[in-house]
Amino acid sequence: MTQITPFRIEIPQADLDDLRSRLAGTRWPTSYQGGDWSRGVPLDYLKGLAEYWADGFDWRAQEAALNEIPQFTTDINGQRIHFLHVRSPEPDALPLVLTHGWPSSPVEFAKVIGPLTDPRAHGGDPADAFHVVAPSLPGYGFSTPIAEAGFSLFGVAQYWAELMSRLGYERFAAYGTDVGSGVAGMLPYAAPGRVVGVHLSGTAAAPPFAPPLELDGLSPADRTRAEQFNTFREEGVGYLVLQSTRPQTLAYSLNDSPVGQLAWITEKFHEWTDPAATLPEEAVDRDQLLTNVSIYWFTGSGASSAHASYEGMKAWKAMVAQQSQQSEGNQDWQSQGPPTGVAVFAADSTIRHLMDPYGAIKHWSEYDRGGHFAAMEVPDLLSQDIRTFFQPLR
Fold this sequence. Notes:
By secondary structure, the chain is of the alpha/beta class. 46% of the residues lie in helices and 13% in strands. It has 16 helices and nine strands.
């Protein structure tokens, strides 16, 4: 079955009422900290955010805004795939598939869709236009539940290749962030000869469980990024250990408590956004953040995305092992396939000589602002970097 079905988000009022009831009945823990984030999300901060979610945040307005973006679903090998699809007014636009990561959704791309699809209307060159396709990863948002095939980077890349074929896009560009960067990186293998280039952000200096990085001999900028990575591997991987080892245990909390789901995601928006931002809403729009959290809550995808992490980490480790074998036999293995571009933002730990030891990456940009959720934080920088990278590849 290759049918593509128009989709609208229509959360039942009973689900909204249930959310507000659960928020009102939250059993709050004792706070063992002041106002800092050293032990996690501060109690007073989360209480204020939860109160706004219950009484100030307008889900119906956000739902209506999202429904202005054309959305669809299709079934690929038993997996329901939800996606945004916005065609450019420019007839020669290049198709581009955008892949989000965790803990995110296609909501992340709301602010870049306009500049990418219609640069003429946003002060850009119409020759840089894209037809944008932004799917929800399996187990995330409205791409639930996870099918029997489970979740793997290459499996998702195969879904995306099929999706682009169903849309009539035989030649296309790819962008990914966080786990989406792994999917984007696998697309040239899933769709040989069809991907013109791969643009990545939200990458890291090393695998999350790698040894600490040596700081001696690094430039000041790379030393800062290495220190960020070392802090992350020491203090910031608890979520990944739990999701990649005991997702079902975590699932009960995320699926039953909206405050638990809110805290689980909000902490990452504090930890991973621009270091200059003290609070998450100083880096991203608070309503956009809560729209993302709400989708996780209404679809139960806090639980299913944890299971996706479990399966994805297994597949990722296998991919890393395979790449290590390839690099032993061919030091320039990264240069095989279409060109790669990387954008590094202020909160990222990515270091070029570690990610690109043989100089195979064709485009490399570093910015002094923004972070892991670049499309939400600095949509101007990200959209322009994507345009610049793909200009010679059209």
